[in-house]
Amino acid sequence: MRQIDAGLITESVKKMVMEANYFLPEDVYSTIKEAQDKEEWQLASDILDKILQNADIAKNDQVPMCQDTGMAVVFVEMGQEVSIVNGYIEDAINQGIREGYEEGYLRKSVVGDPLNRVNTKDNTPGIIHYSIVPGDKLKITVAPKGFGSENMSRLKMLKPAEGLEGVKDFVLETVELAGPNPCPPIVVGVGIGGTMEKAAFLAKKSLMRSFDSYNENPFYADLEKELLEKINELGIGPQGFGGKTTALRVFIEYYPTHIAGLPVAVNIQCHAARHKEVVL
Amino acid sequence: MKKLTTPLKVEDLKDLKAGDNVTITGYIYTARDAAHKRLVELLEEGKELPIDLEGAIIYYVGPTPAREGEPIGSAGPTTSYRMDSYTPQLLDQGLLGMIGKGKRSQEVKDKIVEKGAVYFAAIGGAAALIKKAIKSAEIVAYEDLGAEAIRKIYVEDFPVTVVNDAHGNDLYQSGRKEYLQWLKEN
User: Distance (Å, rounded) from C-alpha A280 to C-alpha A91?
Assistant: First the structure.
């Protein structure tokens, strides 16, 4: 067994929550720049320019690009030959979130109970997803998720008979209903299949993908391209003021499902598509 | 570019049209979900509000903590519809301007017309950029709410866009329509 110290996990998570909030990933930045070059509607182009300026300021001044520094979503892929020493992994991750949000001047946006709503004042707990994988490495991805876009996300248990058209309609309907609210241009994460929670998980997980990636299955890769084109025909545009650039990317992940079901989840992400990863 | 200073007067707003770019200079208040709930609870109990809303602008924002020597952290708009159920009562108290992002309810839009008020959008996610327009900030109520406390902030040339004007226009409908029409013709 390879041993990894819990303190190293805390340090890594702390660094990642800060960096994710200050530095817009390069692939996201260049995709917004490309969209701006292609955007012929002046108001839309001006807004994309402001979004890029904002990313530059955040990077240079090391300040959060958005005041909603999110709830910390963490994906852990743990090699089955890894053993964590000197602490419990979940405590180590939450400690990293606690220290990073404090030292990084990030907003504490978590309430301890959804109905009684008292702020936990340290942005914990995070939303932590674990998977056990082959090998002796530990991969941690941190994605601060803002709720302007999270609130516009939806899930539906379609009938198998609704098929491909049903999925397309549901994705487009979700983007239409969201309109200007989730700070377009958006990234659209779609999870299809599995069970109710699996579809939601896949939708979230898809948002971690690189902007130059498509689904490995050509059928789903084509569907990603087709949906992006259809979304950008809606005319919602940056901030909902009209324009071509409503979405930057559509990411789809799928999974086997039951003979009676066709779950589909759509997780909306704003243009601040923040995530950082580390392999320990 | 039109320039507005606070406090607002109804006459200042009657020529504003959905889609206009405007800059705002002067003191404005910040408030979001929890502060709105408390303000409206006070009104329902017949009590006095901790802030004077006559001609005021409320900016829907929960900023990040300020670094040493700075008035405020990053401070972009939050989504406005969550304030919709409280907004008409605040407009009745003399509130004339709101800054946020995203759609408002029909009830709020109607009340904006009735009162001659205005709803502006700031660019969602441009929080580091907007921070530069905020010159001072002071908590004036509900300090226990942290980021959600009511702050009185001084803004200089804060850039916003008119979404809902006093004549019932809505940029989220008209902007998209104009773009799609232009696309068809070009």
Answer: 17
ipTM above 0.90, yes or no: yes
Identify the band that residue B186 occupies on the pLDDT scale cut at 50, 70 and 90: confident
Residue B102: closest CA among chain A residues belongs to which residue? A181
What is the DSSP secondary structure assignment for residue A232, as one 8-state letter? T
For chain B, the domains span 2-185
Q: What is the DSSP string of A76-142?
A: EEEETTEEEESS-HHHHHHHHHHHHHHHTT-----BSSTTT--B-SS-PPPEEEEEEESSS-EEEEE
Contacts of A69 in chain B (CB under 8 A): 64
Asked if the model's pLDDT at residue B64 lies above 90, the reply is yes
Confirm or reject contact between B71 and chain A (CB < 8 A). Answer: no
What are the boundaries of each domain within chain A? 2-20+65-145, 148-275
Residues B60, A181: Cα–Cα separation, whole Å: 13
CA quadruple A7, A95, A2, A20: dihedral sign:
negative
Average model confidence (pLDDT) for chain A? 97
Query: Among residues B109, B114, B86, which one has the least CA distance to residue B173?
Result: B109
B34 at A interface, C-beta within 8 A: yes
Looking at the domain that runs over A2-20+65-145, which CATH code has it been given? Answer: 3.30.360
Domain B2-185 has CATH 3.40.50.1170: no
Residue ranges in chain A whose pLDDT is less than 70 = none
Tell me the chain A residues in contact with residue B64 when contact means C-beta distances shorter than 8 Å: 63-64, 67, 69, 105-107
- What residues of chain A lie within 8 A of the CB of B75, using their CB? 67
Q: Name the 3-class secondary structure at B78.
A: coil
Q: Quick one: tokens of B68?
A: 């040493």
- Active-site residue, from B18, B35, B36, B130: B36
B167 assigned to active site: no
Query: Is A237 an interface residue toward B (CB < 8 Å)?
Result: yes
Q: What does pLDDT average to over chain B? A: 97
Q: How far is A119 from chain B (nearest CA, A)?
A: 8
Whether B67 has its CB under 8 Å from any CB of chain A: the answer is: yes
For A:27-56, CB contacts with B below 8 A are 40-41, 43-44, 47, 50-51, 53-54
Tens of pLDDT, residue by residue over B89-104, are 999 999 999 999 999 9
Per-residue pLDDT at B1: 84
**Inter-residue contact A211 to A148 (CB < 8 Å):** no
